[in-house]
From TrEMBL:
UniProt feature coiled coil, ranges: none
Annotated protein name in UniProt: 5'-methylthioadenosine phosphorylase
Pfam families assigned to the protein according to its UniProt record, in alphabetical order: PNP_UDP_1
HAMAP family to which the protein is assigned, alphabetical: MTAP
Species name: Acidiplasma aeolicum
Domain of life: Archaea
Occurrences of domain Nucleoside phosphorylase (ranges): 4-189
Gene Ontology molecular function terms on file: S-methyl-5-thioadenosine phosphorylase activity
UniProt similarity note: Belongs to the PNP/MTAP phosphorylase family.
Organism taxonomic ancestry: Archaea, Methanobacteriati, Thermoplasmatota, Thermoplasmata, Thermoplasmatales
InterPro entries: MTAP, Nucleoside_phosphorylase_d, Nucleoside_phosphorylase_sf, Purine_phosphorylase-2_CS
GO CC entries: cytosol
EC number, as in UniProt: 2.4.2.28
Record-linked PROSITE patterns: PNP_MTAP_2
Record keywords: Glycosyltransferase, Purine salvage, Transferase
Amino acid sequence: MTYIGIIGGSGLYTLMKETETINVDTPYGKTSDSIEIGKINGVDVAFIPRHGKKHTIPPHKVNYKANIWALKHIGVERIVGLNAVGSLKEDYSPGDIVVPDQFIDLTRRRDLTFYDGPDVYHISMADPFCPDISRKIYETGKSLNYNIHSSGTYVCIEGPRFSTRAESRLFHTFGDIIGMTLVPEINLA
């Protein structure tokens, strides 16, 4: 079966119907938590809580490789990652939804690729987000009258600490939103 993969926070549990919990052994260790299989509005979904069900895994300790590998292993072909972020842009308000189209990776200690063995591949990140999924998310958000932005640059920092004032001034010139979990999920997906 083909699922839409969702990686995000625990708030999604209440949206899922007909759920089943599965565990997947991966060559990269344990996933953040069990995978919940279910339906959201009739769509088959596989959900992983990025920080664990009890939110005990900080962003720099998430086993991103295991999460992505496990989703692919069970038949996921498309992944939607939901990220809590901040912004320093005056035209972005708390609660706004941003559908990013670019990112800047300022992480330092994360495993960014599956291709670090004898077979080396160079993956283009020129257009890192799926335009079909991005468009559908944006159109759905607009139809529901959400305050949603169709593009933006996500600055991903290592975490779990927040940025200093000097870093925040710099990030303001780099991008639109600041978070800690997009990278390496996007590279691995």
